[in-house]
Amino acid sequence: MRETSIFDIISPIMAGPSSSHTAGAVRLGLLTRNIYSDVAQKVTFKLYNSYASTGLGHGTDRGLLAGFLGFSVDDMRIKEIFNLEEAKGLDYSFEFLEDFNRHPNAVDIVIEGQSSLTVSGKSIGAGEVVIDKVNGFGINLTGKYNSLLIVYEDIPHMISKITSKIDTNIAELICDRYAKGEKASMCISLDGELTGDVIQRIKNMPRVYMTRYVKKLES
Asked: Which DSSP string do the residues of the chain spell out, in sequence order?
């Protein structure tokens, strides 16, 4: 008798019996795809702790890859992701590590291509996730809000100059920096949506080095 796979049962809300390892993995991949936005040539998924030890059995590797390729949580093709043309066109690999300073369900997604990016996140249960670092900058991206990620030069008044261009309510703003006067980051969670004109005006600001608009994930 054939054993039932984790991907034999997928719902629009959760995938399989372990939402952290499956639905959460897809969401982490989707958020990372949206943050990167360029054409990826190579992706390394570094799974930690519980993700590393039990992730293969729960389909975490498939979920992460499928999300990064743009598949939704309820897409039945996830169970065959390694055999699909979308996956064959990407150079990807998995590493399985232990680091007890990290969350039990933590992952680093290292992307190489037109630009390089390292996204660190974790699956916290019930399909919910948090991206907590991008290229070493501390952020808080959950997929529950439309969000704006910005890397800029840490000089006076940059926060007010950027936020003054945003025409919707700010739910949360988190700033981080490497050191005083060096590169800094903003993660802005929004109650509404931004138009392309607003995003472009922020992109065109002097001393703004990266701007990413990350749409909230579907429930």
From this structure: -PPPPGGGSB-SS-BSS-TTTTHHHHHHHHHHHHHH-S-EEEEEEEEEEHHHHHHHHHTHHHHHHHHHTT--TT-GGGGGGGGSHHHHTSEEEEEEE--TTS-TEEEEEEEEESS-EEEEEEEEETTEEEEEEETTEEEEE-SSSEEEEEEEE--TTHHHHHHTT--S-EEEEEEEESSTTSEEEEEEEESS---HHHHHHHHTSTTEEEEEEEPPPP-
Q: Which domains does the chain have, with CATH numbers?
A: 1-134 (3.30.1330.90), 136-219 (3.30.70.260)
103-112 residue pLDDT tens: 999 999 999 9
Q: Which residues of 157-174 are buried (b: 16+ CB within 10 A; e: fewer)?
A: ebbebbeeebeeeeeebe
- pTM here is 0.88
Report DSSP state, residue 84.
S
Q: What is the pLDDT of residues 138-152, one digit of tens each?
A: 999 999 999 999 999
